[in-house]
Specification:
Blueprint (H helix, E strand, L loop, with lengths): L5 H6 L5 H18 L1 H10 L15 E2 L2 H4 L11 E4 L10 E4 L2 H16 L6 E5 L1 H4 L5 H13 L5 E3 L3 H14 L3 E5 L1 H10 L8 E4 L12 H12 L5 E4 L8 E3 L4 E3 L4 E7 L2 E5 L6 E7 L8 E10 L5 E6 L14
Parallel strand pairs: 1-14, 4-5, 4-6, 6-7, 7-8
Antiparallel strand pairs: 2-3, 8-9, 9-10, 10-15, 11-12, 11-13, 13-14, 14-15
Helix pairs in contact: 2-3, 9-10
Length: 330
């Protein structure tokens, strides 16, 4: 296994705002030099990179470029290619992973910062639509956590809700700490068919109806799941194919990020302008672990920040094209 580079080590050593500031600017300049797609985007914006002296001034690449371009720094043979689920007739995003061990280090460090070691838990994954295709970063994440759990009961479930319900009942009686990670529509199916009062269960939804059910607002969804399983809070994971890191919510839909990740909110009518806390707009993600791709991504999600840098996800843009994507056409 290759050793981490100095910049990779520094990402997981961030302890202050000045640490983040210094490293964000270093990675921005590195990606400008090494990522042709990002460099072309910045040049088309007419931005001189020497004028960027604060991470709040760094331009964010619209996430759609991952569907049409190879967003990568330098030439390398990827150890994995993560693919978004996509919709029939629509291009899927592709994320070329230079180093799986580094991705897994980011994933595990982020998980431990919120939940402690995976070994403390039985980890169950209910991800049918993701398991039925290849290249899912969510399946890779769940698989790694299941392996690190080292518990014989940890594992994936496809459509066998009854077997999962029996396992949950057994684990409850044993007093085991359990994380059930699931795609939203499958958790609702489980809740309807096999409700089980398990107050200690960490029930974590990853979003996604995948066309299987009507869309629900978060409060309604969480009320249904809380009632079915007798849990006080519904946990959530915020991640995506194009990122290397994850944010987590321990309830109320409020997400926190690991130290090497930041959320900023952009004005939907002026994508290069940022909004203050409490204002709703487009979610921009800084994921410094995404070194060999792009660490600065303008997503399709809508949200808002609070005073502690935690954030809520309020929905998605209706228009699938974020302004600025046409800058690389032609």
């Amino acid at each position: 296994m290759r050793e981490m580079t100095e910049i990779e080590k520094n990402i997981f050593s961030i302890k202050s705002e000045s640490d983040f500031q210094r490293l964000a600017l270093e990675i921005f300049r590195f990606q400008y030099e090494q990522n042709p797609v990002y460099q072309s985007f910045i040049r088309k914006l007419g931005i001189n990179i020497t004028s960027v002296q604060n991470y709040l001034e760094i331009p964010f690449l619209p996430i759609e470029f991952f569907k049409t371009h190879q967003v990568a720094c330098g030439n390398f043979k990827p150890e994995a290619v993560f693919l978004s689920s996509g919709t029939t007739g629509i291009n899927t995003s592709r994320h070329f992973i230079k180093s799986l061990p580094f991705y897994e280090k980011s994933l595990l460090r982020g998980f431990r910062s919120f939940f402690g070691k995976p070994e403390k838990y039985v980890i169950l994954a209910l991800l049918p639509s993701y398991l039925e295709r290849s290249g899912s970063s969510l399946v890779h994440m769940a698989s790694l956590l299941i392996r690190r759990s080292k518990h014989k009961s940890s594992g994936f479930y496809l459509h066998d809700y009854e077997r999962l319900a029996v396992e949950l009942s057994k684990l409850k009686k044993q007093g085991q700490k359990v994380i059930l990670l699931g795609v939203t529509y499958a958790l609702l199916d489980l809740a309807e068919q096999f409700p089980l009062k398990f107050p200690e269960l960490i029930l974590m939804e990853t979003g996604g109806m995948k066309g299987k059910r009507r869309e629900m607002v978060r409060e309604e969804l969480h009320d249904v799941l809380s009632s079915a399983f007798g849990v006080k809070n519904i946990y959530s994971e915020y991640g995506m194919t194009e990122l290397l890191s994850q944010a987590y919510s321990k309830g109320r839909g409020v997400f926190s990020t690991p130290p090497w990740m930041r959320i900023l909110i952009r004005d939907v009518n002026d994508p290069l302008s940022l909004l203050p806390e409490g204002k709703s707009g487009g979610i921009n993600v800084m994921d410094l672990a995404n070194i060999y791709s792009c660490s600065f991504i303008a997503t399709q999600d809508l949200g808002k920040l609070d005073s502690s840098r935690d954030f809520e996800v309020l929905g998605r843009f209706d228009n699938s094209d974020v302004r600025g994507c046409n800058l690389l056409v032609g």
